Amino acid sequence: MILAVLVVPLLGAAFIALLGRWPNYRDAASVVTALSLFGLVLALVPRADGVMLDKFVLFETLPGLRLAFSIEPLGLLFALVASGLWVLTSVYSIGYMRAHHEEHQTRFYACFALTLAAAMGIALAGNLFTLFIFYEAMTLATYPLVTHHGTERAVHAGRVYLGYLFTTSIGLLLLAIIWTWALAGTLDFRAGGILAGKTDSTTVALLSALYAFGIGKAALMPFHRWLPAAMVAPAPVSALLHAVAVVKAGVFAVMKVIVYVFGTEFLQQTGLSVWLMYAAAATIVVASLIAVAQDDLKARLAYSTVSQLSYVILGAALANSAGVLGGSMHILMHAFGKITLFFCAGAVAVAAHKTKVSEMAHVGRQMPITMSAFLVGSLSIIGLPPFGGSWSKWYLILGAFDVAQLPLVAVLLISSLLSIAYLMPIPARAFFIREPGERPSQGVHEAPFACVLPLCVTAAGCLGLFFFAGEIYEFLFPLVQH
Amino acid sequence: MIDNQLPALIVATPLAASLLMPIFRSAEKPWVLSLLTTWAVFGMTVLLLLQLSDRSQSPDGRAVISYAIGNWMIPWGIELRIDRLNGFVLLVIAMISAIVTFYARLSVAQAVPQHRIPFFYSVWLLFITGLLGVAVSGDIFNVYVMIEISALASYTLVAMGQHENPKALLGSINYLVLGTIGASFFLIGVGYLYSVTGTLNMADLAERLKPLHGNRALITAFAFILVGLSVKMALFPLHGWLPDAHGYAPPIVSALLSGVAIKVAAYVMIRLVFSLLGMEFSFSILPTGPVIWVLSSLAIVIGSYTAIQQTSLKRLLAYSSVAQIGYIAMGLSLANENGLTGSLVHVFNHALMKSGLFLVAGIVSYRLGAADLELMAGLGRKMPFTMSALVAGGLGLIGVPLTSGFVSKWYLVSGAIDRGAMPLALVILLGSILAVMYIWKVLEIVYFRPSLDSARAVTEAPWSLVLPAWILIGASLYFGVDASLPSGLAEHAARFLLEQS
Amino acid sequence: MVVFDLYNYWVFILLMMIGLYTVIASPNLVKKIIGLSVLQTAIFLFLISLSKVSGGTVPITGPSAELYSNPLPHALVLTAIVVSVSTMAVALAIIINIKLTYGTIEDDEIRKTEGH
Asked: What pTM value is reported for the model?
């Protein structure tokens, strides 16, 4: 069953590559793969009522170093988000890529499927070694997507992308993993952690730093530069990968390391993660400030993502139940919000050929559905009810209160204000500002249907998640039971 | 009966075949004979290793095969001695040379004039003979002679690259001068060892040296031998000869030089440091550890950094070899089980990867006439199989998980952590990051640059070239997924060494 | 004087240094090879001098030979001489090819033509 989750996207990639000559079949293959993957992941859900239910060992590279998978709520949540949104993104890509007349579409879809396979591997990884393998595989699989256009700029961005991700993962993460191995003698994810009581506090502090910065995909400052660089990629890539799959893989990994390697209790007792809370808080604020200054729409969204990712890291660093649950929920909530925004950005680029915030005037009238969805997504990111984002922020603030870190509460509130500052001007400008000398109205001109449908669905999702927060809470609760 | 003769036959077979070569006039027959010889050697090596593992299950549990040449009594006669360590090295040599020889036919036909081809194969087999001889020999003077046989053959082989690039001659003479100085130093050290012990047999030496720790002649001997071997294995800063020699030699020669020859020198160093002199002498009495830590760190960083700046694929790979030797030296200087295992596993893994990559470089120059990076623009679409081998091998050099390079780095970093030497762990990983840079530089050119007009008609190379390259690279990928064979052998060898010393 | 008792070492070191110096300092490839040869010869002398036993005779077993020099280093040196001669042969062959290709055997001039 777990194997199927990995194999389906791989098979999908193979089919896509084979069907490259017939675009219609190829695109159908992409959608079918996404649907069947989502179905498979859904089928796994009932099996995750306990923690670490299934162990599935594929092979063993060295004694004790095995490729193993297990199902647990956090991973399943991530798998669900990634695979579910992939369905929508596939539909969206068909509209976007055709409307944009992009080249190398076969490579694009195939790499997309490969990335999803890597995401599934990360989600279901049963130990750090497996996680690391798929983490690196994901970097490699997304590289052709980032450099998709093959221009000088894209190749340069690809260099930045790989440079940051490989430097952090090889230089810091791998070191941390091997160090953990030397200390604990195992790399398995276990409830309650594997490092507890095995080492002194200096080492733990050092290790936690290596993990937090080594997982470069979590974009903790100063290792965030790759994310804005990756924005040269086509919009669907930015939407699914650089708002959901890749970056969430990063924060997911951080969360998983904190919960299953260090153990929340252990961290709480030693109080060694306080520095991480403040590192995350700093990233939240600084990235938001940078976002305010960005004129390029996708760059602004990218910095917003950097900021929002640190919410999850903050939640993990709080290491109490409200923090961990809030952070985990934020993986889901932010995914829906941000993918909506990126879908909209892509739709605007396709239909109105505008990529800058300053050019957004009048777009609201031209593309009312898209911009409404943008508004919904923005509100969810900001954290206003009745949208999903409000819940995760609520729990994070609770968590910050629990550990009596009032400055963190302030940071969370300030960052909400900042996100209003960088997100709201966009729909506001689109709906209300009319440039002088502009022709009154060119009528409604939306992006292709295949683009508009997914963004409506995700916008609706932002709303819907507000009402299902209880179920999600229940689902994730086993994470903090220990 | 013949089973007992395997250690001698492994060396004698290629030597005899080498001497037969000049009677041929055509280009094909020498190749066929070389191929048969190297595969026969490979087969015999496997048989020998099986014998060795049988032996280790016997009651006394001593996994050593000893062979007295001409039945002269050991330690007066010359002994061939196979234990877990050199059995492992023997396997690497035999395996790589068998596969590379398979590749040789077209490559040599292009690189060497027709009438010289039989001589090429003659020297080629002599080279392999020398390497095998170093591995099996249990007598330290014999090791010197065998090192020199393989070295002399390799000077000649490097010089054969002159038909493609006359700089090969300069690389060769430079290599010869430095290599001879290195060998001379080794010989001085052997002289000192003999003067204090009166024996040349390595097992016997190990026994007799134990009470002599602290003897000044012994320290002198150690210093001379260490420096001599450092030249031979191109340990920084004595690596100056390597880039020219490996960079301008015919591709198959580079494959064997970079993949195997420098590892054989590393093997002798491991043998000397651990079995002969013992850990106590090498690491407690003398500060060998810190010295090699510094040198190997510099080798890794400077080697990789220089590789980034190269404009020719072969020179890039050559500088990468300088860095990789740094890893091997660092592993042995850690002097613990993980470090030593990492060192030995890397001997195996790097042999596969680097030979495979040099074969890829050979394919490129087979099609384009030279392996300059500029010429390789846009080859990704024209030679998909060759270039994907380049990608896979490159990822291995970086040490991406599920390639064998990752397994070696895993052991090495574990070893560094076990020793509490965090800076070394960081250097190893920094080397990986620099490797990303030099590999990616190549991949960007291959996949993103538009191809040159001169390369318009280039197509995929014949399978007899692509297949061997892929066998090596594929094996390195396989051993990244299931590392039990090389790491098992290496772990046994490392444990054997550490117990012995 | 203890220092001069071990004069064989002094000779060996002196010759070795002369050889090394020639290899490093001379731009002429043939002279480099000559230096190499001096270096190797120094080592041979060193090995042979090691085997000398004071008052010993040649190592031929007979009724009169009770104290004789150790024969093994001689055998080693014989082998090493063979290696050395082969090295010279290979080196000279390569130098001939360099002369044919570059028209000179001066290291610095070759470098000039190669544009280093």
From this structure: 0.88
